[in-house]
Amino acid sequence: MFIKQISTIFIIILVYVDDVILAGNLIPEFTTIKSILHDKFKIKDLGQLKYFLGLEVAHSSKGISLCHRKYCLDLIDDSGLIGAKPVSTPSDPTVKLHHDSSSPYLNIPSHRRLIGRLLYLNTTRPDITFITQQLSQFLTNPSQTHYNAGMRVLKYLKGCPGSDIFFPRDSDLHIQGFSYVDWAGCKDTRRSISSQCFLIGKSLVSWRTKKQLTI
Residue 27: which residues within 8 A CB-CB, separation 6 or more? Predict the structure, then answer.
């Protein structure tokens, strides 16, 4: 990521392999940058951003929405759950994940790939942030319970694959932050689990769930 800031001009260039995204507050500056890049690398201008690394971007007069609908459906299909019955929550509130004594899940590489793909979904799905944080702790020796919890997340996503993050154009610059701590929530270490989110105006811009470092 490259940032250019001169006085009130603010431009960001995001590069992934041979894909480039421009964002900023001055359209004429975009034209200049694209011209420079084209002279050096012969780029192809695809216009307004609509799709990037599985991320779907929709623009309207009211704002911009980001979602992973196709990515989500592909993930469900790859896991063989396209015909499964959806569930209403991403995790079972009666099950607290820990290093349990249930039978081990033997296909560890497959389970790791699933959790990795779910973690990528966190960029637009704050509703699964907590459960993916929980599941990511048991990648070395997952049990059948952990596998079942991962499958439940997919069944939840099946019911709402197109849920999005929306950024309204009329948001102000008022910043709000919320936090919560599940006191001594980890059954293995007795550490607390912190959750937090931040909004600029009406736009959710940051969220995370993390186990605290100390008891």
Answer: none
**Buried (b) or exposed (e) across 48-58, using 16+ Cβ within 10 A?**
eeeeeebbbee
- pLDDT tens-digit series, residues 15-62: 999 899 999 988 889 999 999 999 998 999 999 999 999 999 999 999
Q: Radius of gyration of the chain from Cα atoms?
A: 20
Q: How far is CA 166 from CA 7, 26, 54, 87, 120, in A?
A: 29, 22, 17, 24, 18
Tell me the pLDDT tens digit for each residue of 87-125: 999 999 999 999 988 899 999 999 999 999 999 999 999
Helices and strands (DSSP H and E) totals, the chain: 5, 10
Distance CA 125, CA 19 (A): 23
The pTM of the full predicted model, rounded to 2 decimals, is 0.88
In eight-state DSSP terms, residue 199 is E
